[in-house]
Every structure is written in C-alpha cells, then in structure tokens.
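Input.
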Amino acid sequence: MNRIELTCNPFIKSALKNRYPQLAVFIVMLIGYIFAILAGLIGTPVGSHNFSIVFVWIAWWAILILVAVPFFGRGWCAVCPIPLPGEWLQRGAVLAPPEKKPTWLNLRVPKVFRNIWLQNISFLLLALFSSVLLTTPNITGIVLAAMLFAAIGLSTIFERRAFCRYLCPVGGFIGLYSQTAPIELRIKDKQVCVKCEGKPCYNGSSAGYGCPWDVFPGGLTKNTYCGLCMECIRTCPHDNIAVNLRPFSADLARPSTRMDEAFKAFIMLGSAMIYAGVLLGPWGALKDAAYNVGSSAWFIYAAVFLAIIFGVLPGLFTVAVYLPIAFAPRNHVTTRSKSLRQRFAQFSNSLIPLGLMFWVAFSLSFVLTNASYILGALSDPLGLGWNLFGTANAAWQPMLTSILAPAQTLALVGGLIWSARTAQKAANEVKVSPTPVILYCFIATSLMLWLLL
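Output.
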C-alpha cells in the first residue's frame, strides 16, 4: 500500500487548518477533564459509581487503547486538554498569535532531560499505584489535577509543551505505539524545507505558532514525537506538509537505537502482563499486596514489579539478541559491526506490536467486564442520587462474554505474528537469525494467554 495524502482533499485540509473545530473539541475535553477532577474529589467514594473512575479508566481507556492509538496514533494528543491552560498562558492567546507574547522564563529544557526517561518513570509510578488509582476516586482526582498543574507550571518555565514532550506518562505510551498507526504527518518535498527561510513551521510566524513539540517537520521520520497539533500545516508557507494514510507499522522499518525508547517497550509489555495478573487473575494474595499500598507486602510487590521490567524481561531479551551474534562466523563483518547495546535497542522494535496487542487483549477484558457501569455514571456522575437519563440503577453485567476469549486470542496471536515479521525484517538487515527473538515473543505471548484465559 502506497501512502495516500489525506490533505489533498480540500475539506480535510480546510478542517485541519481552521483553528475553530479543534478549539471546540479542546473546550469540550477541558470541561470534561475538570469535571472528572471534581467528581473524583467531591463525588461518591464508590469507584464503580463515580464519573472520574468510570469515564477515565473505562470509557476513555477503551477509546484510547482499542481505537485511538491503533488507528490514529497521536490523535488523542491532538485534542488532549491537559496542556491547554498552560499553553494559553505561555502564548498569551487562545487562537492566533498575539502581537506581543507575555513575559515568561521560556527556558530551554536541559539536555539531560530531553528524552523519555522521565515519561518512563512517571508511567511506572502510576503503574505501581494503579490498583488504588483505578478504584479510588479521590486519588484519581488528585492525579488528574496534578497533571494539569504540572503542565501549567512547566509552561511558565520552559518553552513549548515541555510536559507533553518529556513528562506525560500517557504521552510516552501513545508515542511508542503511534509508530504502528496508519496515520502520519510528513513533509512532501525535503528540498523545499532545505530552501525555506525562517523555518516558520518550527519557529512560528504570524500564521501560527512554532511546533509545540519541539520538532522540525523537515526532519520528521516517525510518529513518536509528533503530537499532530497541526500548527506546522497552518504555518508552512509552501504547503509542503501533509497528513498521510500509510501501511500499519511503517515506522518500525526504521529501528531506534535509543535505550530510553527500548526500555519503554519493556515497561509497557511488562505492565500489561502484571496488570492482567493483578486485576484479572485469581490470586487473592497478589491483589491484596497491590492494593495495600505502603504495607510490607506492597513493597515486595513493587520490588518484583520493577525486577520483572528492568531485570527479567530485558535480561532474557539480551540473551535472545546475543545468541545470533555469539554463533556467527568471526569473519561475518555485518553481524559483528554493531554493539550488543545497539542491537538490543534495534530489536526492541519487534516488541512494539506485541505490547500493543497485549494492551488490547487486556483492555478488552477489563473494559467489557466493567462497561455497564458507564450507564449508571451517566445518570448519576457524582453518586448523589441523581437519575438524569433513567439509567442510574442499571444492573452490572459483563458484556460480550461469548466473544471475549476468541477476540483476546486473535489479538495476541496477531501481535505475535506482527512482531515476528518485524523481527525478521530487522534480522535481514544485519543478516542474523531472528529465531531467538521470535521465541522470546512466543513465550511472552503464551504467558499472556495463560494470564488472560
């Protein structure tokens, strides 16, 4: 499948360049986000009846994992309300650039933090406390508020969207898996960018703002760090930026050599497996350990959690990557031309489709089991006895139970095949066998199947 330029369509291009449709969605999302914070803080403490829990961790999560990320990549970032208040303060405007920007520090983020390690850490913190976060409304409200205020604070200190780019735990998650999505933003002609004076797509102009994500579109080769904010389309004076429809996982053909991105793959893969065991498994002692934050059992759980993600999973993967090198002929220049560290990072790309399908399979079970709570929360979002739509007393029942196991199996097997193909392509480039990496993916898939089914 060749790339299809969606912005060739005048209606699509006009809609993307016009700020008002995006602003309307932004405002709706921001109102919903603030209401979720208030619901968590002042609503009922019963998680299954609180808007904050139900709509953030069931409804929004289902849309994000099952639709938005697999098909639209960074599409959620294009309408996310979290950076809005801080960005409006930073810019001194809601829509078009003002004549004079407000005086803020506008500092460059220190180089040591210009990676996704902080995103990795922030996601791990949420993951370690997830059992409480997913069931306790006031904790969810506090976390949502903390993210909003962190984004505001960072916008007044650093330039552009520092929170989104370097700290947001959801942004790191979406960025990793957006590489598999069939939507991309790219330039049309590299030479046009080379000759362009002023680079308004990055630096801004009277037509719009410089890239909030600190990305120069002319050098964009994958989706990981593009937030699809569409500012570059609005500011490019040469109409040289397009939104394309492309084959799935096109970005994975360009393996990363960054360890922060490699470990994000292990964090997401391991977290999905541990979540399946804790939230869906039959082990009462494991659930108690995960829920009793601060207890000795919880500290043991946290230590095991981190050991799996930073020790067991990458350790076994290192063995899988090293074996083809160890048994390669000594005169095999292509095989031995790169370090083990480089190969580790490159082959970690093969875990991205697998991890995405792990999250899809887990989310199918979690969401379909709890989706009926949405009806009650719609009618009584704060748990105050309202019945706005007549569904406040709707009985809980799992949905689509007959197709759940086949759907999960299909997702996991599909992810395994997808990852195997990705590993094969990576191995072909360096002329080594992909078998150990594929075996690693097979064992992980088998374990996930056991945890879910």
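Strands lie at 4-5, 183-187, 204-205, 208-209, 241-245.
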